[in-house]
Design brief:
Blueprint: H1 2-22, H2 29-42, H3 65-73
Length: 84
């Protein structure tokens, strides 16, 4: 019986989630909605002079970290092969 319990115990949460989904319940859906509403409410309001129909200026792309190294090496050609 202990071997059967060792197999079923890790599977029980998966079976419970599968049963809830099959019954049309989506666990965590309300929490996701509340979180998205809270994030939307805390966003900074638009500037007074900005018109809502105009698109914002694009952000400048500045590579950092490993991307900076890859970007700096991407324009270099492979070394010439020396033949004697």
């Amino acid at each position: 019986m202990t071997q059967l319990g060792a197999i079923l115990l890790p599977v029980l949460p998966l079976l419970a989630l599968l049963a809830a989904l099959l019954l049309g319940r989506y666990p965590g859906c309300e929490a996701i909605i509340r979180l998205s509403e809270r994030i939307a409410a805390t966003r900074a309001p638009r500037r007074a002079g900005a018109e809502p129909g105009l698109p914002l200026a694009p952000r400048a792309f500045v590579p950092t970290g490993g991307l900076l190294l890859a970007h700096s090496l991407s324009g270099r050609a492979p070394p010439l092969r020396l033949t004697h």
